Amino acid sequence: MEKIGTKYGGWFIPKNIQLTKDSIIYSVGVGEDISFDLLLQEKYNTNIVLIDPTKRAKKHYDEVNKYYKINKWNFTGDIQKDYYGLLYHLKPNFEKIKYLDIGLWNEKTELKFYKQTNKNYVSQSLINGMFTHEYDIVKVDTLKNIMEKYNHEKIDLLKMDIEGAEIKVLNNMLDDNIFPEYLCIEFDLYLKGKDKLGETQNIINRLLSNNYNILANDNMNITFKR
Predict the structure, then answer these.
(1) CATH topology of domain 2-102+142-225
(2) What pTM was computed for the model?
(3) pLDDT tens readout for residues 31-53
(4) Shortest CA distance to 49 belongs to which of 151, 136, 123, 181?
(5) 158: which strand partners?
């Protein structure tokens, strides 16, 4: 196993992971760190779908895209100290990167997207009670609908850091018989102390019963392979 990306935003994946130019990665919860996605894109020339309705996340994506066009590092937001050292030398193919400014959920609708108390933090949550009562209204959709819209018959790797919504999304994914080969999931409902009903362990058990194996567990940032 090796960690790809910054200390904060990176993920453990197998050193011999089988990704190609035809592989499809869904990266859900972009924030202001797409080091994992850019490093994988350049190394394997793979297709990346970035999904995040956060306004600052979209702004960050636009700033990164601009950087690789004009080679001028001028990022706003909460940027990790090791970001530049990992990304400055890359030559990602942005024609193979798609950004969707929607949220991932278990139905197609519009929902409240709750903000954090500390305005320096980029993340927001679809789960009431995770952060403050202040919110934006955002569009959300299911994994199945997004895949059908873009004619994706499979997902090779699904990464999710979606502040508590991972439980509903993963259950919906399994209900729809969608089985990405690799999963990189941050279990925020548990990490934020909001999992009063044991939903995190329940969904992990369900994944295991659907032939997923745990490859790495970095403080509830878990990498699975099926």
Answers:
(1) Rossmann fold (3.40.50)
(2) 0.94
(3) 999 999 999 999 999 999 999 99
(4) 151
(5) 26, 183
